[in-house]
Amino acid sequence: MMRLSYRSPKTEVRESKIHGRGLFATADIAKDEIVAVKGGHIVDRKTLREKITPRLGPVEIQIDDDLFIVPVTQEERESSMLYSNHSCDANIGMRGEITFVAMRNVRSGEELTHDWAMTDDDDYFVECKCGAPNCRKILTGKDWQRSDLQKRYAGYFSAYLARKIAMVNIRR
Ligand SMILES: C[S@@+](CC[C@H](N)C(=O)[O-])C[C@H]1O[C@@H](n2cnc3c(N)ncnc32)[C@H](O)[C@@H]1O
Ligand SMILES: [Zn+2]
């Protein structure tokens, strides 16, 4: 089967100290270089919650208020997963809604992590295990609204969140 997602040949999936398996650089990666592109099917939140997550676990990336990209079968799961864990000191971010790029130069061997604040608009609270000195400890699905994170990740939010942030700031 053709892979649904793209992972740069400069990456590999292996065990992570953050959680389960993670995505790692196997060579130096330059700032703004493409690290991965998420592929799969497009489903709404109801389908994600009722039909996908119970069977396949956390496999999605959010691409709009009510739209997510997911694998839909166990067979597709492996070829759609990127294995990028969350870190509060992330080194990859978004270009558009499905493309992950390096936010700084990354050295071979580093784990490639994104911050869910850059992709998610949801209602969850999750305990973070990233271990970064600046760890927020509790992550929420509304972290994209934090002005410190908006500054930190400017230019690397998912396009749909960048539009929301711009609209909120215009109204201020
Ligand atoms: C798409 S998976 C990432 C790959 C995952 N490590 C694996 O082996 O399948 C996302 C899940 O990883 C876990 N995870 C990732 N980063 C985390 C973090 N910083 N703190 C706690 N759990 C995390 C959570 O269970 C989350 O739902
Ligand atoms: Zn953290």
Description:
- The protein is an alpha+beta fold and 172 residues long.
- The protein has a single domain (6-171), classed as SET domain (Beta-clip-like, Beta Complex).
- 22% of the residues lie in helices and 25% in strands.
- It has four helices and twelve strands.
- It has helices at 45-56, 74-80, 147-152, 159-171; strands spanning 6-7, 11-15, 21-25, 34-37, 41-43, 61-64, 67-70, 92-95, 99-102, 111-112, 125-127, 138-140.
- A four-stranded antiparallel β-sheet has the order 1-4-9-8, with no helix packed on it. Strands 2-3-10 form a three-stranded antiparallel β-sheet, with no helix packed on it. It has a three-stranded antiparallel β-sheet with strand order 5-7-6.
- A hairpin with a 2-residue loop joins strand 6 (61-64) and strand 7 (67-70).
- The longest helix is centred in the last third of the chain and has 13 residues, at 159-171.
- The mean pLDDT is 97.
- Residues 16, 18-22, 58, 83, 85-86, 128-130 line the site of S-adenosylmethionine.
Class by SSE composition: alpha+beta
Which CATH class? Mainly Beta
What is the CATH architecture term? Beta Complex
Tell me how many strands there are. Answer: 12
List the uncertain runs: none
* Spatial shape: globular
The CATH superfamily is identified as SET domain
Q: Gyration radius, to the nearest Å?
A: 15 Å
Percent of residues in helices comes to 10-25%
The domain count comes to 1
Bound molecules: S-adenosylmethionine, zinc ion
Walk across the major sheet and give the strand order: 1-4-9-8
What is the average of the pLDDT values? Answer: 97
Sheet with the most strands, sense and barrel status: 4 strands, antiparallel
